[in-house]
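REQUEST FORM: STRUCTURE PREDICTION
Request ID: SP-0412
Submitted by: Lab K.M.
Chain count: 1
Length (residues): 261
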Amino acid sequence: MSRHRKFGLKRPTEADICASGFSTPWDAPMVPPFPFTFRDCEILTLYWRTDPGAMAFLLPPPLEPVGDVACVHIYKMNDTDWLGPYAEVNVMFGAKLPGVVEGAYSPYLVLSSDIGVAHGREVHGQPKKLGQPTLEYRGDLVVGRVERNGIDVITGTLAYKQHEVGADALTPYFDFSTNLNLKATDHIDGRPAIRQLTSRKLSALTVHEAWQGPGTIELRPNAQLPVFRLPLIEPLEGFLWRADFTLIAGEIIHDYLEAKQ
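STATUS: Completed
RESULT:
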């Protein structure tokens, strides 16, 4: 018996390589296949009124902005299949593909997990980058921070557990559970391979608790994480919530290359 078979490894066939969910390196794959589950997530969500023109600038056509509100989710992922514990940040605002789907577009995402960065970019087309989000409880204050390049690019605060609410209260401005993204990948010779708008929706969402209160948001300029392009006009409400959810396969809602043919 070969040493590789002794340890349960099997050389992949061409069919294995062409199957969905395949990732490299094949003997220690980086990207998890669907579905995978996030358990006991602690999430700070903060809304602020912003410039609709700034939203439109960040949207790839034919997506259109909805409203004038942006939000940031700062997640403390305590128990996630494949990834383990890590932290994540998703900046979003309302958007729609007219006649097809309405949800929220993500121009900026930051993670402390290299696996999460790879999965988001390779599968969804999410513009994830490596950084250091943190979620802390300081007495009567919830503090979320997003650090990139040694700069606290986002700082958010929320009064600690003042008004308990139901899960429906978490989405007063847009449905952030439906996430819209731009997936762009080139062939090795430079030709465009994938140019798509993708959509994914969280599955098996269970909200264990949710709290609403007054919050603040501060955005600091950073050329590699330019969240300042969604300027703060007015801070709105914030939420602290704890949930489980599962990430399942999404769908392609627009294919730019097919549309050109």
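NOTES: Residues 121 and 127 are 6 Å apart (CA to CA).
Reviewed by: T.R.
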